[in-house]
Write a structure and sequence with these properties.
alpha+beta; 3-stranded antiparallel beta sheet; two-stranded parallel sheet; 3 helices; about 20% strand
Length: about 100
């Protein structure tokens, strides 16, 4: 197994301590990108008002423990049109699932 990397500072998150962030202007109706961010960078991003608003959708460690369940929930979202998930977001979740040891 590997570890995710913060997309801001490029730190490897061996302990899976971080967040999954999404575009807060589109959430909850559209998820077009999942962004892995460490806790420190999350705090920095939250304090900068000039950047696009981000929403913390999940704790990274929770994703690690429930990646298989998330795949089912997202498939149900897509099928029922509750929420629109982009292929890029699904690909990122699959990548995290592989890192967590799920297929």
């Amino acid at each position: 197994m590997g570890a995710p990397v913060c997309e801001v500072c490029k730190t490897e998150l061996e302990n899976w301590s971080g967040n999954i962030m999404v575009d807060g202007n589109k959430y909850p109706h559209v998820i077009d990108r999942l962004m892995v961010v460490c806790k420190s960078c999350t705090n920095k991003l939250d304090s900068i008002k000039e950047i696009p608003r981000l929403h913390n959708i999940w704790e990274l460690s929770w994703v690690k423990d429930h990646a298989d369940r998330l795949k089912v929930e997202i498939a149900e979202d897509r099928q029922s049109n509750v929420r629109s998930w982009s292929d890029e977001a699904i690909s990122k979740l699959n990548e995290l699932g592989r890192l967590a040891g799920f297929n």
